[in-house]
Here is the input.
Amino acid sequence: MERNNGMNRRKFNTALAAGGALTALAPFGIARAQGGKLKVGVLLPRSGFEALIGQSCQKGADLAPEVIKSMLGVDIEIINADTESNVNTARTRAERLIEEGAHVLVGAFDSGQTVAIAQVAEQRGVPLVVNIAAAPQITEQGYKYVFRNFPTARDLVTNGLSLIGELFQATNIVPRTAVYMHVNDTFGQAMTGGIKAALPHLTQLPFKIVDTIPYDPAARDLSVEVSKAKATNADFLLLVCRLNDAIVLRREMVKQRWSPMGVIDPGSPGIYEEQFAKSLGKYADYCIDNPPWYNPKAELTHVVEAAFKKRNPKEHFVYHGLNIGYTFEAILIAADAFKRAGSTNPKALADAIRATNITQRMCLGGPIKFNAKGQVEGNQSACVQILNGTPKVVLPSYAAEAKPVFPWPEYKSA
Amino acid sequence: MSASLIANVVIAGVLTGLVYGLMALGLSVIFGVVRVVNFAHGEMMTIAMYAAVLLFGAFKLDPLLAALPVAALFFGLGYALQAGLINPFITRPEHSQFILLVAVATILTNVLLMVFGPDARNVQTDYMLDSWAIGQVLFDKARVFAALAALATAAGLFTFFRYSRTGTAIRACADNHLGALIVGLNVKHLYALTFGLGAACVAVAGCIMTLLVEVAPSVGPGYTLLGFVIVIVGGLGSMLGALLGGVLIGVSEALAGLFIDPSAKSMFSFGLLILVLLLRPQGLLGRKP
Here is the structure.
């Protein structure tokens, strides 16, 4: 019995030879690619205060293997990790994913969590493809393994403000004044800094900001803020918000009978989210937001939307399209690099990602190409207007699903 | 700055403050009699808000009407909570009571998260976004109805404590616990009754609050803190003080937002709290210990 089960000389030599071969091949990634499968570690805040958006992004990760298999013929295994909306958890989950054999990391929606994951990815030499996170420093650290297919905060603001100019041109309206209201948190202050820096350079924007009103992100009541804004008699409201405050604020505008030309958000979340339209009904209509968005007319969008409908028959794609689009594209970038590299070796994957040139994409913008810093340039925003309770792309014209309505129908010139 | 703008802001502050006052009233009543600080107060109000949202979703029941059955339910739950869980802690050290109610609050928040998820929910009545205008001054209908309901509830509670035999007995327990025991009052029953009334009060506040704000599982702790600020300013244990504290907080936040910085509104509530603690520790209408 002992002889049959134990290690004899022949078995030992065979094992040694196999081990030697594995060790020799490991640097080239050949051994790790034995199964022909790319393991993608997806880090998202699926619980905690960012759970709603994290779960929305997750839908993009869930459908990616099937769609990418049909597109590229590449097998992907998704290993999910929940960052719990917490920076420290994000860091430890990234470590664990690498221990579990993830060849590439994707994530993590939130800038703070992404910064922590990027440090781990760089230290361990495993590529990270950022799906959504706008903090500029993520691609300003000189990292070799960190790549981002999402606009930086500065690009977000510039794209959003440029679209406001296009909106005025498309509707032949020239508002002269705006009152600027913003949520007073890190994001709101970053956007405010970006807006104040960008506005003087955007000469096509004809308006002047007559007052800036910051407000508490946890405010239960925005009646005072809206009263102050109304008292400025500005032509329109320029708004940087989040979801709950956007709802409270819009309600307060109706109560206080304030109907400026419109509400325009240069690109923060809130207005295009499902809860906004659900909570406000008809009063959600005509509000405008200019976030990075997906192209509703792109061929790839139709493919992804069909896969989404199959998995989530009761949900509306439009409310998840942005999160799904950028998460799906991040995994697509990894899969495309894997196909070209023919290896799961981290360095080979990173080199292949650096040479990415994906022209058939779902999100608005030019081809996915990384610059020397690992940043995709040319991602675009869309002017999204709520029409009949649904967000519709109204600009740019090549992706438009409807014509923009500005000013609001109830607007009465003073 | 126009007079109409100031008038609008002050009116909104007063109306919202009355609803805050009603919320804090429950906290004040419970402390005034049972001498237990209910650290689960905001979470209880959140449950009442969800109850109003569910009743509206199922039967289109206006939150002002939903307040009646929800208050009755909360009275029973409050009675059971006091009789079954809190009464054994009455004679224990304050930190035991504190940790017990913090545990209850944490459990309630997590149960709400499990049942309803993290999404915010609301009701949409016909009048919610309407307002009356007198010249340039606007009266938000929902706020006016909410404030009237708050006043009516507070008046009912005040009448009960002042003129009913049970109310008098409860006040006797609050004034002299030992004396109440000696004359044969069923103190534990009266404590449970008081907790039930406090819970019913917060249930009404929760229902009418849905006319003004959305509800999510995470809003509870914020309301607990707000309730404490109000009752400490007004005087812990004083019913009228709770209403006054609510109005003061509502108006001071509104005026601070108008004249100084809207995002620093809550800073002024806490500033007012520190001022009261320094100059009149028992609160504006509270009695010296």
Summary: Residues 1-9, 11-35 of chain A have pLDDT under 50 and may be disordered. The first helix of chain A runs from residue 2 to 5. Chain A has three domains: 1-25, 37-151+296-354, 154-291+382-399. The domain at 154-291+382-399 of chain A is CATH 3.40.50.2300 (Rossmann fold).
